[in-house]
Amino acid sequence: MFRKLLPLTLLLVFAASALADEADIRRMMEAKLGSKVESVVKSGYLGLYEVYADGNIFYTDEKVSAIMLGAQLIDAKTMKNVTEERMKKLTAIKFNELPLERAVKQVRGDGKRVLVTFEDPNCGYCKRLAKDLLKLDNVTVFTFLYPILSEDSVRKSRQIWCSADRAKAWNDWMIDAKAPPAKEDCDVTAIARNQEFGRKLNISGTPTLFFTDGERVPGAVPLARIEQKLNQLR
Fold it and tell me: How many H-runs (helices) and E-runs (strands) does the chain carry?
């Protein structure tokens, strides 16, 4: 009986030790970063720990004697970008929890493919994306007005939201530089709620795209990559 219990006891001891290590690393990293650490796990490479905080992956050793930010961890056997794969998982969302009623909706063709974007009306990359998205067919695009660049961005977002045809007002501005009607006389609480929601999702730049499998893609994305991803999700 003792021999049967011994391996289990050792396993529990090692597990408790690992948890203690992770708790210590979390505490030390929070002290150094001055912010909350979301997760700490062993990376499986070089004895490094993966620390996720502020929407970033950090790597450190068990004593937090050095911290790496912006490093790309590559598996030498498969040449897979481990950091990139981990970021996809860590930043993924539950798509069905998105408040789509607070987004500008555009449907083209059968609308079966679905894409969500968070965009600022004064974002140059967003304007380029808007032109690209017009080339997509059989898609439904939900655009969350997410003004983070300036007070004018907030004003334009409110004006677009208060327009009789929000999708037209959005495209008129983003594609043709035609300013929306100067009216902010509707319920614009959606804009402030989008800002709050975006901060909760750690969206710090625009555009940011989400696909129905929860994957997040920040920044300007080539149209071919968007098409490929949408087709994969059919």
Answer: 7, 9
pLDDT tens figures, 93-105: 899 999 999 999 9
Q: What whole-number distance in Å separates Cα of residue 48 and Cα of residue 67?
A: 10
Residue pLDDT, tens place only, 4-54: 444 544 343 344 445 558 899 999 999 999 989 989 999 999 999 999 998
d(CA 229, CA 217): 11
Question: Do residues 25 and 42 touch, judged by C-beta distance below 8 A?
Answer: no
- Torsion angle (degrees, nearest 10) of CA 37, 41, 44, 49: 40
The residues with which 117 forms a beta bridge, in sequence order, are 143, 209
> Strand 208-211's sheet: what is its strand order?
104-108, 139-145, 113-119, 208-211, 216-218
Residues 98 and 115: beta-carbon distance below 8 Å: no
The reported pTM is 0.79
Give Cβ neighbours of residue 151 (< 8 Å, ≥ 6 apart): none
Class of domain 95-232: alpha beta
**Could you identify the residue written with the tokens 């083209």?**
108
Q: Where are the domains of the chain?
A: 2-90, 95-232
Q: Please give the Cα distance from 53 to 157 (Å, whole number).
A: 30
Residue 116, classed as helix, strand or coil, is strand
| pLDDT at res. 7 | 52
Rounded distance between C-alpha atoms, residue 192 and residue 158, angstroms: 10
The domain at 2-90 falls in which architecture? Roll (3.10)
CATH fold match for the domains 2-90 and 95-232: no
